[in-house]
Amino acid sequence: MATLVCFHAHPDDEAIATGGLMLRASRAGHRVVLVCATRGEVGEPQEGVLDEGETLAQRRVVELTKACELLGTEPPHFLDYEDSGMIGEATNDNPDCFWQADFDEATNRLATILTNVDADVVTIYDPNGGYGHPDHIQVHRVGLAACQKLGIEHVYESTINRTRAIEQIRQAREAGMFPEDENGEEGPNIEDNPDFGMEDKHLRYQLDVSDLATEKKAAIAVHRSQVGPDSFFLAMPDEAFAQFFGFESYALPGVRDTGGPEDIHMLPGL
Q1: What share of the chain is helix, strand, coil (3-state, %, to 5)?
Q2: CATH assignment of 3-250?
């Protein structure tokens, strides 16, 4: 059996991006470890979720630990940096945030964890962090550097299949699944955001976890401070959720134009 390490930026990223892989690997008998760069300190909490005197970081750790239980992983590890917030925000300048972290120090922190757990397979993000978030970009940079330092062969970039997502959103609009927002738009507009995901031709693997969609949705729902009952994730019908989030996509570091993803049962090395 192998050890899978999923390296993520904030609590809830793990369930959304790699929850199916984590659960499938765990059920197959592999050791699954989650490393989070931050505790998501600058997320926007849902109204009424926090207890008196409780910080958002404290609540998100509790939520993440519960999600790990649902996904069959060990309690989470942290690099102990603070959330950098979205690109262009003043929080990007926080000297304690992940975006401002000393690169060698952050790489060594992650490498120490990877060594201690004897990592065989590691997931990071694509070079743009999936959608341009500073912490996600740092996960790619730091994660790749740590794996190269340790000579870990099986490294995969968790990303979004942009080609598939655009088509799914188009179909959802035609089916009237998205209510019109205050700007007159129906559903997310990713066509005009070149930083969102990677085109099909750049991917190497696509993992079908639609049979685990119910479990994955439950793991996302645990993150109540960030995901309200009316959120995009939870409001959609189960069948639609399985179509949107029942497929997890992975690229290979430094390899592009693969001709499209292969459908796999598990990532190589597991």
Answers
A1: 40, 20, 40
A2: 3.40.50.10320
